[in-house]
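Can't paste images in this forum, so I'm doing it all in text. The chain is below; anyone willing to post the predicted C-alpha coordinates underneath?
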Amino acid sequence: MPSIAIIGGGVVGRCCAFHLQGRGFDVTVLDDDPALAAPSWNNAGHIATEQPAPLASIAAIRSAPGRLFRVGGALDFDFSAPGIYRWIWRYLRAATPRRFAKGKAALGALVANADKAWAALAEELGEPALVQNAGHWVLWESSKSATKGLQHWQQADIGTAAFAPLSQDALEVLEKKITEPLQGGIAFTGTGQVARHQALAKALKAAFIARGGQWLSQSAAPLVIKEGRATLPGGADFDKILVCAGAASARVLASIHPGVPLMAERGYHIEADCDDSLWPAGLPPVVFEDRSLIVTRFGDRLRACSFVELSSLDAKPDPRKWQQLLRHAAELGLPFAHNLSQWHGARPTLPDYLPAMGQSDKASNLFYAFGHQHLGLTLAPATAILLGQLLSGEKMAQPLAPFSLARFGC
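Text version of the structure:
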Protein backbone atom coordinates (compact mmCIF):
# COMPACT_ATOMS: atom_id res chain seq x y z
CA MET A 1 0.00 0.00 0.00
CA PRO A 2 1.74 3.23 -1.08
CA SER A 3 2.05 5.89 1.62
CA ILE A 4 1.22 9.53 1.02
CA ALA A 5 1.50 12.62 3.19
CA ILE A 6 -1.02 15.38 2.53
CA ILE A 7 0.15 18.77 3.73
CA GLY A 8 -2.90 20.82 4.65
CA GLY A 9 -6.26 19.92 6.16
CA GLY A 10 -8.51 22.47 4.50
CA VAL A 11 -11.45 21.34 2.41
CA VAL A 12 -9.22 20.41 -0.56
CA GLY A 13 -6.80 18.47 1.64
CA ARG A 14 -9.56 16.62 3.48
CA CYS A 15 -11.40 15.68 0.31
CA CYS A 16 -8.16 14.44 -1.26
CA ALA A 17 -7.27 12.46 1.86
CA PHE A 18 -10.66 10.73 2.01
CA HIS A 19 -10.71 9.97 -1.70
CA LEU A 20 -7.12 8.68 -1.89
CA GLN A 21 -7.74 6.51 1.15
CA GLY A 22 -10.66 4.95 -0.70
CA ARG A 23 -8.26 4.16 -3.54
CA GLY A 24 -6.03 2.16 -1.22
CA PHE A 25 -3.39 4.70 -0.24
CA ASP A 26 -1.99 4.80 3.30
CA VAL A 27 -2.69 8.48 3.99
CA THR A 28 -1.31 10.80 6.64
CA VAL A 29 -2.62 14.37 6.93
CA LEU A 30 -0.45 17.14 8.38
CA ASP A 31 -2.64 19.99 9.59
CA ASP A 32 -2.15 22.82 12.07
CA ASP A 33 -5.65 24.35 12.05
CA PRO A 34 -7.62 22.67 14.87
CA ALA A 35 -9.78 25.77 15.29
CA LEU A 36 -10.93 25.60 11.63
CA ALA A 37 -9.89 29.19 11.01
CA ALA A 38 -9.00 28.69 7.33
CA PRO A 39 -11.13 30.13 4.49
CA SER A 40 -12.35 26.58 3.76
CA TRP A 41 -14.67 26.83 6.76
CA ASN A 42 -15.40 30.55 6.85
CA ASN A 43 -16.81 31.34 3.42
CA ALA A 44 -20.43 31.73 2.31
CA GLY A 45 -20.87 27.99 1.74
CA HIS A 46 -21.71 28.64 -1.91
CA ILE A 47 -21.05 25.87 -4.47
CA ALA A 48 -20.50 28.19 -7.42
CA THR A 49 -21.31 26.20 -10.54
CA GLU A 50 -22.35 29.50 -12.17
CA GLN A 51 -18.72 30.68 -12.23
CA PRO A 52 -16.93 28.70 -14.98
CA ALA A 53 -14.86 31.67 -16.18
CA PRO A 54 -11.63 32.88 -14.50
CA LEU A 55 -11.74 36.25 -12.78
CA ALA A 56 -8.65 37.27 -14.76
CA SER A 57 -10.58 38.90 -17.60
CA ILE A 58 -10.93 42.13 -19.57
CA ALA A 59 -14.40 42.58 -18.06
CA ALA A 60 -13.00 42.39 -14.51
CA ILE A 61 -10.29 44.91 -15.37
CA ARG A 62 -12.83 47.36 -16.80
CA SER A 63 -15.05 47.11 -13.74
CA ALA A 64 -12.19 47.34 -11.21
CA PRO A 65 -12.20 51.15 -10.67
CA GLY A 66 -15.82 51.08 -9.53
CA ARG A 67 -15.18 48.14 -7.22
CA LEU A 68 -12.25 49.64 -5.30
CA PHE A 69 -12.46 49.86 -1.53
CA ARG A 70 -11.60 53.55 -1.58
CA VAL A 71 -14.91 54.25 -3.36
CA GLY A 72 -16.92 51.89 -1.17
CA GLY A 73 -16.32 48.64 -3.06
CA ALA A 74 -14.87 45.30 -2.06
CA LEU A 75 -11.59 45.28 -4.04
CA ASP A 76 -8.39 46.38 -2.32
CA PHE A 77 -4.64 46.08 -2.86
CA ASP A 78 -1.78 46.12 -0.39
CA PHE A 79 0.99 47.46 -2.62
CA SER A 80 3.59 46.71 0.05
CA ALA A 81 2.95 42.96 -0.28
CA PRO A 82 5.98 41.11 -1.69
CA GLY A 83 5.56 40.23 -5.36
CA ILE A 84 2.27 42.08 -5.87
CA TYR A 85 3.42 44.13 -8.87
CA ARG A 86 4.65 41.04 -10.71
CA TRP A 87 1.41 39.28 -9.75
CA ILE A 88 -0.63 42.12 -11.24
CA TRP A 89 1.45 42.03 -14.43
CA ARG A 90 0.82 38.30 -14.76
CA TYR A 91 -2.88 38.87 -14.07
CA LEU A 92 -3.06 41.39 -16.93
CA ARG A 93 -1.35 38.90 -19.27
CA ALA A 94 -3.76 36.14 -18.23
CA ALA A 95 -6.72 38.42 -19.01
CA THR A 96 -5.84 38.80 -22.69
CA PRO A 97 -8.51 37.19 -24.89
CA ARG A 98 -6.46 34.21 -26.03
CA ARG A 99 -5.20 33.28 -22.56
CA PHE A 100 -8.61 33.94 -20.99
CA ALA A 101 -10.29 31.60 -23.50
CA LYS A 102 -7.86 28.80 -22.67
CA GLY A 103 -8.32 29.35 -18.96
CA LYS A 104 -12.09 29.41 -19.30
CA ALA A 105 -12.11 26.10 -21.17
CA ALA A 106 -10.01 24.44 -18.47
CA LEU A 107 -11.82 25.92 -15.48
CA GLY A 108 -15.24 25.47 -17.04
CA ALA A 109 -14.68 21.72 -17.47
CA LEU A 110 -13.65 21.50 -13.81
CA VAL A 111 -16.59 23.51 -12.48
CA ALA A 112 -19.10 21.57 -14.63
CA ASN A 113 -18.56 18.46 -12.50
CA ALA A 114 -18.56 20.20 -9.13
CA ASP A 115 -22.18 19.59 -8.11
CA LYS A 116 -22.09 15.90 -9.03
CA ALA A 117 -18.81 15.43 -7.18
CA TRP A 118 -20.27 17.07 -4.07
CA ALA A 119 -23.42 14.96 -4.16
CA ALA A 120 -21.37 11.77 -4.48
CA LEU A 121 -19.08 12.75 -1.61
CA ALA A 122 -21.96 13.63 0.72
CA GLU A 123 -23.58 10.26 -0.02
CA GLU A 124 -20.31 8.41 0.62
CA LEU A 125 -19.95 10.19 3.95
CA GLY A 126 -23.52 9.21 4.84
CA GLU A 127 -24.33 12.91 5.27
CA PRO A 128 -26.39 13.92 2.21
CA ALA A 129 -27.98 16.83 4.10
CA LEU A 130 -24.60 18.57 4.32
CA VAL A 131 -25.04 19.64 0.71
CA GLN A 132 -28.15 21.51 -0.39
CA ASN A 133 -29.25 22.36 -3.92
CA ALA A 134 -31.57 25.27 -3.26
CA GLY A 135 -29.65 27.63 -5.56
CA HIS A 136 -29.01 31.24 -4.55
CA TRP A 137 -30.55 34.66 -5.03
CA VAL A 138 -29.04 37.86 -6.46
CA LEU A 139 -30.65 41.19 -5.49
CA TRP A 140 -30.42 44.81 -6.64
CA GLU A 141 -31.35 47.95 -4.72
CA SER A 142 -31.69 50.45 -7.59
CA SER A 143 -33.43 50.31 -10.94
CA LYS A 144 -30.15 51.19 -12.68
CA SER A 145 -28.22 48.35 -11.03
CA ALA A 146 -31.13 45.96 -11.63
CA THR A 147 -31.08 46.70 -15.35
CA LYS A 148 -27.30 46.53 -15.58
CA GLY A 149 -27.05 43.43 -13.38
CA LEU A 150 -29.70 41.49 -15.26
CA GLN A 151 -28.06 42.37 -18.57
CA HIS A 152 -24.70 41.15 -17.21
CA TRP A 153 -26.08 37.78 -16.14
CA GLN A 154 -28.01 37.32 -19.39
CA GLN A 155 -24.75 37.72 -21.32
CA ALA A 156 -22.55 35.76 -18.91
CA ASP A 157 -21.51 32.15 -19.26
CA ILE A 158 -23.06 30.52 -16.18
CA GLY A 159 -22.11 26.96 -17.00
CA THR A 160 -24.66 24.36 -15.94
CA ALA A 161 -26.62 26.81 -13.77
CA ALA A 162 -29.76 28.73 -14.78
CA PHE A 163 -31.75 31.65 -13.41
CA ALA A 164 -35.17 33.22 -13.55
CA PRO A 165 -36.72 36.39 -12.12
CA LEU A 166 -37.15 36.19 -8.35
CA SER A 167 -40.79 35.64 -7.51
CA GLN A 168 -42.84 38.39 -5.92
CA ASP A 169 -43.42 36.16 -2.90
CA ALA A 170 -39.68 35.78 -2.39
CA LEU A 171 -39.13 39.53 -2.72
CA GLU A 172 -41.83 40.16 -0.14
CA VAL A 173 -40.20 37.72 2.29
CA LEU A 174 -36.92 39.61 1.96
CA GLU A 175 -38.49 43.05 2.17
CA LYS A 176 -39.98 42.09 5.54
CA LYS A 177 -36.47 41.37 6.83
CA ILE A 178 -34.50 44.32 5.42
CA THR A 179 -35.03 48.06 5.50
CA GLU A 180 -33.78 48.97 2.01
CA PRO A 181 -36.30 48.68 -0.86
CA LEU A 182 -35.42 46.13 -3.55
CA GLN A 183 -35.73 46.90 -7.26
CA GLY A 184 -35.38 43.34 -8.52
CA GLY A 185 -33.61 40.05 -8.25
CA ILE A 186 -32.99 36.68 -9.86
CA ALA A 187 -33.07 33.17 -8.46
CA PHE A 188 -30.37 30.75 -9.58
CA THR A 189 -30.90 27.02 -9.84
CA GLY A 190 -28.20 24.43 -10.32
CA THR A 191 -25.97 25.98 -7.65
CA GLY A 192 -25.55 24.58 -4.17
CA GLN A 193 -24.62 25.24 -0.58
CA VAL A 194 -22.67 23.47 2.12
CA ALA A 195 -25.12 23.65 4.98
CA ARG A 196 -22.67 23.46 7.90
CA HIS A 197 -18.94 23.95 7.46
CA GLN A 198 -17.82 22.58 10.81
CA ALA A 199 -20.02 19.51 10.44
CA LEU A 200 -18.47 18.88 7.02
CA ALA A 201 -14.94 19.27 8.41
CA LYS A 202 -15.67 16.90 11.28
CA ALA A 203 -17.38 14.34 9.03
CA LEU A 204 -14.46 14.21 6.60
CA LYS A 205 -11.90 13.88 9.39
CA ALA A 206 -13.92 11.31 11.34
CA ALA A 207 -14.51 9.13 8.29
CA PHE A 208 -10.84 9.37 7.35
CA ILE A 209 -9.64 8.34 10.83
CA ALA A 210 -12.26 5.58 11.08
CA ARG A 211 -10.76 4.00 7.96
CA GLY A 212 -7.27 4.00 9.47
CA GLY A 213 -5.92 7.39 8.40
CA GLN A 214 -3.39 9.27 10.49
CA TRP A 215 -3.90 12.93 11.43
CA LEU A 216 -0.89 14.85 12.72
CA SER A 217 -1.05 18.33 14.21
CA GLN A 218 1.93 19.73 12.38
CA SER A 219 2.63 23.01 10.62
CA ALA A 220 3.38 23.27 6.92
CA ALA A 221 7.19 23.58 7.00
CA PRO A 222 9.12 23.92 3.71
CA LEU A 223 9.88 20.65 1.96
CA VAL A 224 13.43 19.65 1.09
CA ILE A 225 14.65 17.68 -1.92
CA LYS A 226 17.09 14.77 -1.70
CA GLU A 227 18.19 12.70 -4.67
CA GLY A 228 15.27 13.91 -6.75
CA ARG A 229 12.64 13.20 -4.09
CA ALA A 230 10.74 15.56 -1.80
CA THR A 231 10.96 14.85 1.91
CA LEU A 232 9.49 16.42 4.98
CA PRO A 233 11.77 18.34 7.34
CA GLY A 234 13.15 15.92 9.89
CA GLY A 235 13.50 13.12 7.37
CA ALA A 236 10.04 11.54 7.53
CA ASP A 237 9.74 9.47 4.37
CA PHE A 238 6.61 8.87 2.30
CA ASP A 239 6.19 7.32 -1.11
CA LYS A 240 4.33 10.43 -2.25
CA ILE A 241 3.68 13.93 -0.92
CA LEU A 242 0.67 16.05 -1.88
CA VAL A 243 0.73 19.78 -1.07
CA CYS A 244 -2.72 21.20 -0.31
CA ALA A 245 -1.61 23.96 2.03
CA GLY A 246 -3.74 26.76 0.60
CA ALA A 247 -2.17 30.21 0.80
CA ALA A 248 0.90 28.72 2.54
CA SER A 249 1.65 26.35 -0.37
CA ALA A 250 4.25 28.63 -1.97
CA ARG A 251 6.23 28.57 1.27
CA VAL A 252 6.02 24.78 1.50
CA LEU A 253 7.35 24.48 -2.06
CA ALA A 254 9.87 27.33 -1.90
CA SER A 255 13.05 25.23 -1.96
CA ILE A 256 11.82 22.98 -4.79
CA HIS A 257 9.64 25.32 -6.84
CA PRO A 258 10.75 28.86 -5.98
CA GLY A 259 8.76 31.81 -7.24
CA VAL A 260 5.24 30.36 -7.22
CA PRO A 261 3.16 33.57 -7.71
CA LEU A 262 0.62 32.81 -5.02
CA MET A 263 -1.11 35.83 -3.49
CA ALA A 264 -3.03 35.88 -0.23
CA GLU A 265 -6.42 37.12 -1.38
CA ARG A 266 -8.09 37.94 1.87
CA GLY A 267 -11.76 37.83 2.67
CA TYR A 268 -13.67 39.04 5.74
CA HIS A 269 -16.91 38.08 7.40
CA ILE A 270 -19.11 39.01 10.33
CA GLU A 271 -21.41 36.52 12.03
CA ALA A 272 -24.11 36.74 14.69
CA ASP A 273 -26.75 34.65 16.43
CA CYS A 274 -29.94 34.28 14.43
CA ASP A 275 -33.35 32.64 14.57
CA ASP A 276 -36.30 32.38 12.19
CA SER A 277 -37.78 35.65 13.40
CA LEU A 278 -34.62 37.46 12.24
CA TRP A 279 -33.76 35.56 9.05
CA PRO A 280 -35.71 32.51 7.79
CA ALA A 281 -33.74 29.26 7.91
CA GLY A 282 -35.00 28.15 4.51
CA LEU A 283 -33.50 31.01 2.51
CA PRO A 284 -30.63 30.15 0.15
CA PRO A 285 -27.48 32.31 0.07
CA VAL A 286 -28.49 35.88 -0.80
CA VAL A 287 -26.18 38.17 -2.79
CA PHE A 288 -26.66 41.92 -2.42
CA GLU A 289 -24.81 42.61 -5.66
CA ASP A 290 -24.66 46.41 -5.30
CA ARG A 291 -22.60 45.85 -2.15
CA SER A 292 -20.59 42.75 -3.19
CA LEU A 293 -22.09 41.10 -0.11
CA ILE A 294 -23.33 37.54 0.33
CA VAL A 295 -25.44 36.57 3.34
CA THR A 296 -25.97 32.96 4.40
CA ARG A 297 -27.58 31.37 7.42
CA PHE A 298 -25.83 28.38 8.98
CA GLY A 299 -27.95 26.84 11.73
CA ASP A 300 -28.41 29.47 14.42
CA ARG A 301 -25.80 31.86 12.97
CA LEU A 302 -26.05 34.40 10.16
CA ARG A 303 -22.89 35.22 8.18
CA ALA A 304 -22.11 38.11 5.82
CA CYS A 305 -19.01 37.76 3.62
CA SER A 306 -17.18 40.13 1.31
CA PHE A 307 -13.85 41.54 0.05
CA VAL A 308 -11.11 40.73 -2.39
CA GLU A 309 -8.07 42.11 -0.58
CA LEU A 310 -4.79 41.22 -2.29
CA SER A 311 -2.16 41.24 0.40
CA SER A 312 0.53 39.14 2.09
CA LEU A 313 -0.10 36.05 4.16
CA ASP A 314 1.20 37.60 7.38
CA ALA A 315 -0.42 41.03 7.08
CA LYS A 316 -2.61 42.18 9.94
CA PRO A 317 -6.36 42.44 9.28
CA ASP A 318 -7.77 45.76 8.20
CA PRO A 319 -10.48 46.78 10.72
CA ARG A 320 -12.04 49.07 8.12
CA LYS A 321 -13.29 45.98 6.28
CA TRP A 322 -15.33 44.81 9.26
CA GLN A 323 -16.60 48.37 9.76
CA GLN A 324 -17.84 48.39 6.16
CA LEU A 325 -19.56 45.04 6.65
CA LEU A 326 -21.26 46.37 9.76
CA ARG A 327 -22.28 49.51 7.89
CA HIS A 328 -23.84 47.45 5.09
CA ALA A 329 -25.65 45.34 7.68
CA ALA A 330 -26.98 48.42 9.46
CA GLU A 331 -28.15 50.06 6.22
CA LEU A 332 -29.94 46.89 5.16
CA GLY A 333 -31.34 46.23 8.61
CA LEU A 334 -29.66 42.83 8.77
CA PRO A 335 -29.64 41.21 12.24
CA PHE A 336 -25.97 41.38 13.26
CA ALA A 337 -26.42 42.46 16.86
CA HIS A 338 -26.24 39.33 19.03
CA ASN A 339 -22.96 37.60 19.91
CA LEU A 340 -21.11 39.18 16.97
CA SER A 341 -17.87 37.61 15.76
CA GLN A 342 -15.41 38.70 13.08
CA TRP A 343 -13.09 36.70 10.82
CA HIS A 344 -10.53 37.26 8.10
CA GLY A 345 -8.51 34.76 6.11
CA ALA A 346 -6.43 34.32 2.98
CA ARG A 347 -7.67 32.58 -0.14
CA PRO A 348 -4.82 31.11 -2.23
CA THR A 349 -4.95 32.96 -5.56
CA LEU A 350 -2.72 32.64 -8.61
CA PRO A 351 -2.68 35.48 -11.19
CA ASP A 352 -4.67 33.63 -13.85
CA TYR A 353 -7.32 32.57 -11.32
CA LEU A 354 -6.78 28.89 -12.13
CA PRO A 355 -5.75 26.34 -9.51
CA ALA A 356 -2.37 24.62 -9.47
CA MET A 357 -2.75 20.86 -9.82
CA GLY A 358 -0.30 18.27 -11.04
CA GLN A 359 3.00 16.48 -10.49
CA SER A 360 6.32 18.18 -9.88
CA ASP A 361 8.97 18.00 -12.58
CA LYS A 362 11.64 18.56 -9.89
CA ALA A 363 10.75 15.80 -7.42
CA SER A 364 9.30 12.55 -8.70
CA ASN A 365 7.14 11.90 -5.63
CA LEU A 366 5.75 15.42 -5.26
CA PHE A 367 2.22 16.44 -6.23
CA TYR A 368 0.18 19.58 -5.57
CA ALA A 369 -3.39 20.90 -5.45
CA PHE A 370 -3.82 24.50 -4.30
CA GLY A 371 -4.64 27.99 -5.58
CA HIS A 372 -8.39 27.48 -6.00
CA GLN A 373 -9.10 31.15 -5.09
CA HIS A 374 -12.86 31.65 -4.51
CA LEU A 375 -13.66 28.15 -5.75
CA GLY A 376 -11.90 26.01 -3.15
CA LEU A 377 -15.12 24.83 -1.58
CA THR A 378 -16.78 24.41 -4.98
CA LEU A 379 -13.95 22.37 -6.52
CA ALA A 380 -12.65 20.32 -3.59
CA PRO A 381 -14.33 16.97 -4.40
CA ALA A 382 -13.70 17.33 -8.15
CA THR A 383 -10.06 18.11 -7.39
CA ALA A 384 -9.80 15.00 -5.23
CA ILE A 385 -11.10 12.82 -8.06
CA LEU A 386 -8.55 14.20 -10.53
CA LEU A 387 -5.65 13.87 -8.07
CA GLY A 388 -6.76 10.32 -7.35
CA GLN A 389 -6.56 9.49 -11.04
CA LEU A 390 -3.16 11.15 -11.34
CA LEU A 391 -1.65 9.44 -8.30
CA SER A 392 -3.08 6.07 -9.34
CA GLY A 393 -1.67 6.35 -12.86
CA GLU A 394 -5.10 6.20 -14.47
CA LYS A 395 -6.34 7.94 -17.57
CA MET A 396 -7.33 11.48 -16.60
CA ALA A 397 -10.93 12.59 -16.95
CA GLN A 398 -9.54 16.04 -17.70
CA PRO A 399 -6.00 17.05 -18.71
CA LEU A 400 -4.10 18.82 -15.93
CA ALA A 401 -1.61 20.61 -18.19
CA PRO A 402 -3.49 23.97 -17.94
CA PHE A 403 -3.09 23.79 -14.14
CA SER A 404 0.60 22.89 -14.07
CA LEU A 405 3.08 25.11 -12.22
CA ALA A 406 5.11 25.01 -15.42
CA ARG A 407 2.84 27.76 -16.78
CA PHE A 408 4.65 30.15 -14.43
CA GLY A 409 8.11 28.75 -15.10
CA CYS A 410 8.51 27.57 -11.53
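The chain has a mean pLDDT of 96. The radius of gyration is 21 Å.
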